[in-house]
Amino acid sequence: MQVIMFDRQSIFIHGMKISLQQLIPEIDIQGLSQSEDLWECLETSPEAILMLDGDMGSEVCQSILQEKNNRFPQCRVLLVVSDCTKEWLQDVLRYNVLAVVQRDSEPDKFSLAINSVAMGLMCLPGDWLTTHDENEQEQELQHLSSRQREILKLLAAGDSNKQISRTLNISAGTVKAHLESIYRRLDVKNRTQAAMMFNETSCN
User: Fold this and answer.
1) How far apart are CA 184 and CA 148, in angstroms?
2) 93-149 pLDDT tens trace
């Protein structure tokens, strides 16, 4: 498992590398603090998991995520933050951020998040992304067709468009069209936010 840590705090990188290597024996983790090194590393390992320092400031962080998305869209991101209430965090979901972990969390929380991201699953804090109240969410989900709800359920389980098309025996193009309609209906920007809404409603 290839993991790239991009963080300003070298002490944090060092401690996290030791802890994660004990918890995930198969992990290959590289610690970086210069953006030039990050792009070189991703050139070599474009499908690596990126653990990104979310405390660099919203503009810097989003700039890195945007360039990452343009050049290495398959790279999944785990964002490390000190404060999960930052308003701009909601915007980073569009950049293939699948996990957000607070910097002072125990190493096993990071291990769980990394393993989740590796499987294409989300590992996000509880309520800080919610933009609708629970009743509104339930009403919006009820307005979806039965086929759209099937697709959303599979999406929330981490299935790709291709996997969904195989499971439901429909074309990938049909899946994409349904997803675009789902995003508009639920007023979300991407599959991660749609899955979050489905999971939050299902758990309540």
Assistant:
1) 12
2) 778 888 888 898 899 889 988 988 888 777 776 544 444 444 555 667 777 888 998
- For residues 118 and 154, give the distance between their C-alpha atoms in angstroms, rounded to a whole number: 17
Structural domain containing residue 138 = 134-203
Is the pTM value of this prediction over 0.85?
Answer: no
Give the CATH number of the domain where residue 151 resides: 1.10.10.10
CA dist., res. 43 & res. 164, Å (int): 30
Q: Is residue 129 part of a domain?
A: no
Nearest to 96 by CA among 78, 123, 108, 111: 78
Interatomic CA distance for residues 115 and 99, integer angstroms: 10
CB 68 within 8 A of CB 75: yes
CATH code for the domain of 49: 3.40.50.2300
Q: How is residue 73 written in tokens? A: 């869209």
